[in-house]
Amino acid sequence: MSTQYVDNFADDIGPIKILHIYKPKSQLRGIVVVDNLAMGPAAIGGCRMAPDVSTREVFRLARAMTLKNAVNGLPYGGGKSAIVGDPKSDLKETWMREFARAIRDLKEYIPGPDMGTDEQCMAWVHEEAGRAVGLPYSKGGLPLDELGATGFGVAVASDAASEWMQLPLENARVVIQGFGNVGRAAATCLLERGVHVIAVNDSDGGLHNPDGLNIPELFRWVQTRNLNRATHLGEPMERDRVLEIESDIFVPAARPDVFTEANQHLLKTRLVLEGANIPITHEAARVLHDRGIMVIPDIIANSGGVICAAAEYEGKTEDQAFDAIRKSVYRNTTALLKRVRERKQYPHDAALQMAREVLSKKMGLYAST
Ligand SMILES: NC(=O)c1ccc[n+]([C@@H]2O[C@H](COP(=O)([O-])OP(=O)(O)OC[C@H]3O[C@@H](n4cnc5c(N)ncnc54)[C@H](O)[C@@H]3O)[C@@H](O)[C@H]2O)c1
C-alpha cells in the first residue's frame, strides 16, 4: 500500500492523517489534513473552498495551524480541510453538507470558516457533523468573520509593530490584497488607527486612491457590484498591479504564495502583516527582510480567527475572545520583534522557533529551528 501523500510531507511534526473524499454524483472533492495533535485531542482549522486547492496546499495550511495554535498556547492541534470547487457554485450547500457527513466520525478535526466558506457554511457543517466553529449567533456561535476577529488581530499586530519600528499609524499608507472577511475587517480596524487605505483588490480587479479609499462606502458597494467598477471611489486597475503600489503597510489577505523569490522585488513597503495564510514563501520573506521590510508572519498576525474559534468552542463570550486576541497577538508580535532584533533572526524563523518551543515540550522533543 502506498503512503505517498504522507511520505511527501512527513517530518518530526506530522501530518498524522490525510483524508481524500470523493462523491461521484455531486463531484464533491474534499481534502482533510490533521497535522499534529500534541496541543490537544482535536485540531481546529478552517475549511477552504477554491477551484485550485491541492493536497499540498492543505498540508501547508494545516502545518500553519499546528504552529499557530502552539504559539498562541491554544489547547488544539493543527488541521485544515478543503473542498475543490468554485465558492460561487450552486452546489455549495450540497458540497458542504456532503463533506460534513463524510467527516462526521473524524472527531479529531473541528472545521471552521476559511477562504470561500462562511458562518452559514459552518451552520450546515454543524447540522450534519455535530461540530464546527465560527457559527452564526443563531446557532450559539461567535461568528468570527462577522465579528472581524482576524482583521482585529492584524490591527493589534500593527500596534505592536508600529511602536517597535517607530512607524506611526496615523496617515500611514496601507495596501490590502483581498477584500473578503479578513481584508475588510483589517481595513476597518486599521482605519480606526488613522491610516489611509490607498489600494485594495479582490479576485476580479483592483482600486487605487492615493488620498485613501472610502472603505465603508466601498464595503457597501461590493455587496452588489464589482469592486473595480467603483470608479467614483478610486482608479480601477488590473488585479495584480495593486501589489506594486508603494505603501507603508501591506496586508496580504487572499491567496497563498503571492510573493515568491521571483516577484518579491515588486513589493515596496515597510511592514507586512500577513492576514492570509502562507502568502509569502520563506525564501521570499528572507529577501524582503534583507531589503529592510519587516514581515509579521501569519501564525502570529492572523491568529485572531482561531483564538475566537477556540473561545467559542469553550463557551466564552465575545468580550473574552477579543481580550484574548488583543493580549496574545500583542505579546507574540512584541516577542517576535525582540527576537528578530536581539538574535538577528529572520521573522519567519523566529516565529517558527517560538511555536516549536511550545510544541516540542508537548511532544517531548527538544526544541529546534
Ligand atoms: N477568515 C479568517 O478568520 C481567517 C483567519 C486566518 C487566516 N485567514 C486567511 O486569510 C485569507 C483570506 O481569508 P478570508 O476569510 O478573508 O476569505 P474570503 O473568501 O472572505 O475573501 C478572500 C478575498 O480574496 C480575494 N481574492 C481571491 N483571489 C485573489 C487574488 N488572486 N488577488 C486578489 N484577491 C483575491 C477574493 O475575491 C476575496 O475578496 C486566507 O488565506 C485565509 O486562510 C482567514
Q: How would you describe this protein?
A:
The protein has 369 residues and is α/β, with parallel strands linked by helices. The chain folds into 2 domains: 4-141, 3-Layer(aba) Sandwich (Rossmann fold), CATH 3.40.50.10860; 149-304 and 332-353, Rossmann fold. It has helices spanning 4-9, 55-71, 92-102, 119-129, 144-147, 149-165, 181-191, 215-221, 282-290, 298-301, 304-313, 318-342, 347-363; strands at residues 17-23, 28-36, 43-50, 77-84, 109-113, 173-177, 196-201, 206-208, 235-237, 249-252, 271-273, 294-296. A hairpin with a 4-residue loop joins strand 1 and strand 2 (28-36). The longest helix has 25 residues, at 318-342. The chain is globular, with a radius of gyration of 19 Å. The site of nicotinamide-adenine-dinucleotide has 27 residues, from helix 5 and helix 7. Residues 141-367 form the Glutamate/phenylalanine/leucine/valine/L-tryptophan dehydrogenase C-terminal domain. Substrate binds at residue 68.
Order of helices and strands: HEEEHEHEHHHEHEEHEEEHEHHHH
Q: Radius of gyration, Cα only, in angstroms?
A: 19 Å
Structural class: alpha/beta
Q: Into which percentage range does the β-strand content fall? A: 15-25%
Apparent shape: globular
How is the largest sheet built, in terms of strand order? Answer: 9-8-7-6-10-11-12
Ranges where pLDDT stays below 50 over 5 or more residues in a row are: none
In helices, the fraction of residues equals 40-55%
Work out the number of β strands: 12
Number of helices: 13
Instruction: Provide the CATH top-level class of the largest domain.
Output: Alpha Beta
CATH domain fold name of the largest domain: Rossmann fold
Give a quick account of the main beta sheet: strands, pairing sense, barrel closure: 7 strands, mixed
| Chemical compounds bound to the protein | nicotinamide-adenine-dinucleotide
Count of distinct structural domains: 2
N- to C-terminal distance: 33 Å
Going by CATH, the homologous superfamily of the largest domain would be NAD(P)-binding Rossmann-like Domain
The chain-level mean pLDDT equals 95
**Second-tier CATH architecture of the largest domain:** 3-Layer(aba) Sandwich
Site (Important for catalysis): 114
Domain Glutamate/phenylalanine/leucine/valine/L-tryptophan dehydrogenase C-terminal: 141-367
Binding site for NAD(+): 150, 181
GO molecular function, one term: nucleotide binding
